[in-house]
């Protein structure tokens, strides 16, 4: 029979919150409690009798609590097969009583690591008995119900209430699956902690949060997001974000983060910036960003690193956009921005903290450090006879920040605090430059005195030649071509300034 009535429960948990409701319900169904230490005290204070684990094992907790439940009397009660005559006979022979429900959580290993615990503290938070109980109970789901996390308490309560203190085989199998999810995540965290020192060539990543998306990049593709979105954002308005929305949000917040300490505004379309600017106000920064490409901004993703006030909201509200991201909003601004039902408004609660990125490719995963290098004035090496002016240096560094977050091959044309145009994702750097020049012209920008940034070196002088024809006076690039001197000499002949950063910013 697949349905089993719970007669005896082993409860041993680190976190006691919300446990009382479960204990009361189990007691209502005359379930016998077996427990340890603090959990035993907790249940007894609720007014119920508890059988201590040591009564079953004949051993007290030893080695500072490292060994409490690791005993055949406990694991036999969990693991013996109720439909196997031999198992039943042995259980009777050794006075092993059946355990039908196991409620266990694990020591807070991850929390201790994140909290800066000492190595001794961290090691003692590697759970042995708990994880063994979970694995044993999950393995024998045919007979035993396992609850491996306090996040599962609500589901357990619903189950016990609906089935009068019993569970079906499918219920137990589902909880077993959730239990192995808990243990695999826990082991991954422990491995990654130790592997920080040894860097064994093994990729392990575990994310417990996940949600199905409406679809992937296209409607015929399934999509799922794995991550804790709510830790980063609070959605204040609008429909559910799609796969493509999430990709663009990632691009937007990474770019705007480059302008810490400034009032910056970025407009993203298909992960590339179509508008970037800084200003004395958010309104000014937005209007300057919009100037770069009023067409692509339609349906774009907008982000700023400052509070959206009413003045900014009144201007932004004139544009049809998908998503707006900011660290805070004035109430009057929100009232304006919520006037359209489907636009998504996100309050960014914190910055991204990941230092690594990965993606699936071929039959595996590639992983790398995030490009956290932001070119600074100290990095610049003047390669030409003419040095850039202070205004040009500011413009060059501004352009470099955008270049870093734009698909290669890329060229960025800018003045201080404003993107004029970009050429993105081209197979030729010359094509990228021509695209940028044409685009700047189409939106009425005069490139006289503008600067040019490239994500990689110029293998030939053709780009600086073309730039010179359009009035561009300063160039920033990483350098590193065997023909760097050809570009430098052309700049010297035409009174252009060129600086090397020494850092390439490819984004494939």
Computed Rg: 31 Å
Low-pLDDT stretches are none
Overall CATH architecture of the largest domain? 3-Layer(aba) Sandwich
Give the tally of structural domains. Answer: 3
> Structural class of the helix and strand makeup?
alpha/beta
Quaternary? single chain
Mean pLDDT: 96
CATH classification class of the largest domain: Alpha Beta
**Helical content (DSSP H or I, runs of 4+):** 25-40%
CATH homologous superfamily designation of the largest domain: Methylglyoxal synthase-like domain
Major β-sheet strand ordering: 10-15-14-13-11-12
Largest sheet: 6 strands, mixed
Beta-strand content estimate: 15-25%
Q: How would you describe the shape?
A: elongated
Please give the number of β-strands: 23
CATH topology of the largest domain: Rossmann fold
End-to-end Cα distance, whole Å, is 57 Å
Give the number of helices: 19
């Amino acid at each position: 029979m697949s349905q089993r009535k719970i007669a005896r429960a082993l409860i041993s948990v680190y976190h006691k919150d919300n446990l009382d409701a479960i204990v009361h319900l189990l007691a209502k169904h005359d379930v016998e409690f077996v427990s340890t230490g603090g959990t035993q005290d907790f249940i007894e204070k609720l007014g119920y009798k508890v059988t201590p684990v040591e009564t079953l094992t004949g051993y007290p907790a030893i080695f500072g609590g490292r060994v409490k439940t690791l005993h055949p009397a406990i694991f036999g009660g969990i693991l013996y097969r109720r439909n196997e005559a031999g198992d039943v006979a042995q259980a009777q022979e050794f006075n092993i009583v059946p355990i039908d429900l196991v409620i266990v959580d694990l020591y807070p290993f991850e929390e201790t690591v994140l909290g800066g615990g000492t190595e001794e503290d961290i090691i003692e938070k590697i759970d042995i008995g708990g994880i063994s109980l979970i694995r044993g109970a999950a393995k024998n789901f045919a007979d035993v119900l396992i609850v491996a996390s306090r996040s599962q308490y609500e589901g357990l309560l619903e189950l016990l209430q609906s089935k009068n203190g019993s569970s079906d085989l499918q219920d137990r199998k589902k909880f077993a699956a959730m239990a192995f999810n808990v243990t695999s995540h826990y082991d991954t965290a422990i491995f990654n902690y130790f592997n920080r020192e040894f860097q064994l060539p093994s990729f392990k990543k575990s994310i417990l949060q996940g949600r199905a998306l409406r679809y992937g990049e296209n409607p015929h593709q399934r999509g799922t997001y794995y991550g804790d979105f709510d830790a980063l954002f609070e959605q204040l308005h609008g429909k559910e974000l799609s796969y493509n929305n999430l990709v663009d949000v990632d691009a937007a917040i990474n770019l705007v983060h480059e302008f810490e300490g400034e009032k910056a505004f970025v407009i993203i379309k298909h992960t590339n910036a179509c508008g970037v600017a800084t200003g004395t106000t958010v309104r000014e920064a937005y209007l300057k960003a919009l100037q770069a490409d009023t067409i692509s901004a339609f349906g774009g993703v907008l982000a700023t690193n400052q509070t959206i006030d009413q003045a900014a909201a009144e201007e932004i509200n004139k544009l049809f956009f998908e998503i707006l991201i900011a660290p805070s909003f004035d109430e009057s601004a929100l009232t304006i921005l919520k006037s359209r039902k489907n636009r998504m408004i996100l309050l960014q609660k914190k910055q991204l903290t990941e230092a690594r990125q990965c993606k699936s490719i071929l039959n595996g995963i590639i992983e790398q450090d995030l490009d956290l290098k932001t070119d600074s004035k100290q990095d610049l090496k003047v390669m030409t006879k003419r040095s850039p002016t202070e205004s040009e240096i500011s413009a060059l560094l501004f352009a470099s920040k955008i270049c870093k977050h734009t698909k290669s091959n890329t060229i960025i044309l800018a003045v201080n605090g404003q993107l004029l145009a970009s050429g993105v994702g081209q197979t030729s750097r010359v094509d990228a430059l021509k695209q940028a020049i044409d685009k700047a012209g189409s939106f009425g920008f005069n490139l006289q005195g503008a600067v040019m940034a490239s994500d990689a070196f110029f293998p030939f002088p053709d780009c600086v030649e073309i730039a010179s024809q359009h009035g561009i006076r300063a160039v920033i690039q990483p350098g590193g071509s065997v023909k760097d001197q050809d570009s430098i000499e052309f700049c010297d002949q035409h009174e252009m300034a060129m600086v090397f950063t020494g850092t390439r910013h490819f984004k494939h």
